[in-house]
Amino acid sequence: MLTQLSLRHLTLLGTSLLGSTFLLVTAESRAATPQPVPAHSVSGAHKQARTTPAARKAKAAQTPRHETEVSGGTEAVVVTGTREFGKKARDSIAPVDIVTNRQLTGTGQPTLRDSLALLLPSLTVPTGGFDAGALTDSISLRGLNPNETLVLVDGKRRHTTANIYADGGPAQGSTPVDIDMIPMAMIDHIEVLRDGASAQYGSDAIAGVVNIILKKQNHGLTMRSNTGITSEGDGFQQGVFIDGGLNLNNRGFVHIGGDFVHQDHTFRSGNDNRTHTDVNQLLGQPEQTRESVAINAGYDITDDIQAYAGATYAHRHAESYQNYRLPSSLAKYPGYAAIYPYGYSPIEALEEDDYELTAGLKGTLAGWHWDVSSVFGRDYDAVNADSTTNVGLYTATGETPTSFAAQSYNNTQWTNSVDLSRKFRTSFWPYAINVAGGASYRYEAYAIGTGSPASYNYSSSDGFPGTNPANAGKWSRDVAAGYLDISTNLMKHWQVDLAGRVEHYTDVGNTKTGKISTRYDFSPRFAIRGTFSNGFHAPTLAQEHYSALSVSPTAASGIIAANSPGALSNGASALKSESSTSAEGGIIVEPIKQLHVTVDVYQIDLRDRIMPGGSIYGDQARKALLADNFKLPPEASTWTGSQLATHWFANVANTRTQGLDLTATYPTDFGRYGHADWDVAINLNRTRLRHQASSSNGTPLLTAQYIAYITTAYPRSKIIFGGTWHSARNKWAVSVHEIRYGETTSQLTYYTGPYAYSTSHYLEFQNVPKWTTNASVTYNISPRWSATIGGNNIFAKFPSVVPEGNRYLGVPKYYMSTSQLGMNGGYYYLDVSARF
């Protein structure tokens, strides 16, 4: 609880000085402060319909200087899931959650990923992570792998990270868009389409689409500082967020913003059973420092043609601990025993550079809206192994570095597209027909760089071996696509939307997708809607070509490329695209005045899911790794069972995901005592295995552990409910929300006892449901300044504790390979913001 903070915690919190974008009061929201209400209850979409410079100038003259160009509630204009201009959220044919900047900052979290996780029940994030998997911020929708969620920025496909999530768990194999590389200060709002949309946007839009809309205001300066710490007294975080807009001769705008965020390590490990101390720091949040900047600009060349451009750049330094090595491991190497007299914990250190450039022209011609754009994005990751050794190199040469350039990855995406749309009115049809179409060409490239020779020769850098030349390389492909989208009314209150898309990949062939959506409004207070579609996810270049080895004190685990000699000799085959069939139906109802309720049910049949499969162990794994030129430590010759394992990415299974989304909002007016906004949002979700694939030699591709990753590692439910009270003059605001995380079930490896390192016997482990409380109190110091003190998970709930016999070396007391409650405990923060 807040009252349990120590003086040291409060002193750290008190360093917060600056602020953000949310002081503004709109007539509709009546709130001058940011509050962490669920995303469905307030919207803030920037108007996308084009106007002439003269019209915009006239509008600006009527608008106070500090008001934003957003609208609240169901009146927001949305651009995701529709090709029509001026479509309002209340009329959406598919379910769309709208998250405003004010809601994001109101969570008190310095990162976009963690903010969204507190607002959207259908969105989950990993419980924790280790190795490189902890160094990329991924999100999942509807209990599916992060690769099945498409991320757009201002409607344009965003490039993905080069850092693959290679560790075991439901996110394994994903190279998602790292949304935290986009400055939070530059985000106007986010539209989350909870619907399959491959026919509209292409690969990856199976679970849904996240469209990040950047700010376009041509005036103002906003500042925000966020300072926080966990309930355990570690994990100190500091974020500074600044953005502002400039007017270009009343014909355009430039908006510039940036973030600086630092996060310290948290330590959640159990005692190491070799030392019976907490010296092993494997489990916890990695240390991270991230700087990001962005610019967004537009200019009216004529009244009908606008040029636009934008750029984002981010740099991240992050460090994650590996398992602790005992001093005895260096007994034969006195020179390095002196360097590490108390043993050592290898560190995996990431230096990441990420940028994206966008340029385009859009306008109207003969009634057609047209948009021609080019987007180039790149993510480069250099991964070093620090505070470690190569004892094999020392034995051979008498010396070894303690820091190694181990691995590097590069992901490039260049997308060029043309989009057209027009609304037709004809004599033979009584309703307007909106026709949209377009084409795109995308170049994708993925490269794995070779580590320094000292990192992969002899016994390799301990803990994190370098990439050898045989597993390095560069691969690319071309993607061409075309789509057509037609929407109209069949009756006055009956909408229908038809979309179709064809795509060609030079490595995996052709795909065809389609979608039909419909909505019928029985009255202004009751409507139904439904969608039927098919979709796909093309295997990423990383899934096709990535290989790496992770070495622990008494075990090693590798991933080898599906087309490598080691994989092919064990029955591997080329990857195919995942394909899906989705059905969704829902209602929008206002049973009593101002009580807004939506309920949507969905089913996603996903075929040929891509996950690691064909796991092999012991001597069989040793032969496969050696065939792929991996170097193993000398003691690996005695390892048995799952102490030595490897696998490759494969099309492993068909699954069926079913679920329900519910949202409801209701306001209460207390007169001179202010007003309250109440809200509830629920996601129920379940995935079942329908078919498991086998390798070419007849061996099943999945173990019970990997079946659990696919089917039960995501919570069966997530519920967010609560309310926000505002005083009559908006000086004060108090927000309280509860989040309930449903159960997850995992199959845990035994590390002691008769089933130690078994590949067929696992412990079924239930991570039981958890309740957390988020609360904040905001005081508006002046019309420009406000301060918020609050906490997330204020009663410091933690995941269920893993039994001792199922913890490697006794260390991971919380299971990292799920997406339920995070392992950091409570987080308390002070947020100060200003707008000028």
Can you put this structure into words, describing what you see?
- The protein is globular and about 85 Å long.
- By secondary structure, it is mainly beta.
- The protein is built from 12 helices and 35 strands.
- A hairpin with a 2-residue loop joins β23 (548-552) and β24.
- Helix content is 9%, strand content 45%.
- 55% of the residues are buried.
- Mean pLDDT is 88; it is low at 1-37 and 40-73.
- It has a 22-stranded antiparallel beta barrel. It has a 5-stranded mixed β-sheet with strand order 3-8-9-6-7. A two-stranded antiparallel ribbon has the order 1-2.
Topology:
Blueprint: H1 7-13, E1 45-46, H2 53-62, E2 70-71, E3 96-100, H3 101-106, H4 112-117, E4 123-124, E5 140-141, E6 149-153, E7 156-157, E8 187-193, H5 198-201, E9 208-214, E10 221-230, E11 237-248, E12 252-263, E13 287-300, E14 305-321, H6 334-339, E15 347-365, E16 368-386, H7 391-397, E17 403-424, E18 433-449, H8 453-456, E19 473-491, E20 494-505, E21 509-523, E22 526-537, H9 541-545, E23 548-552, E24 555-559, H10 565-568, E25 578-589, E26 596-617, H11 618-627, E27 644-669, E28 675-692, H12 704-711, E29 717-726, E30 732-741, E31 744-748, E32 763-767, E33 770-780, E34 785-792, E35 827-835
Parallel strand pairs: 6-9, 24-27
Antiparallel strand pairs: 1-2, 3-8, 4-5, 6-7, 8-9, 10-11, 10-35, 11-12, 12-13, 13-14, 14-15, 15-16, 16-17, 17-18, 18-19, 19-20, 20-21, 21-22, 22-25, 23-24, 25-26, 26-27, 27-28, 28-29, 29-30, 30-33, 31-32, 33-34, 34-35
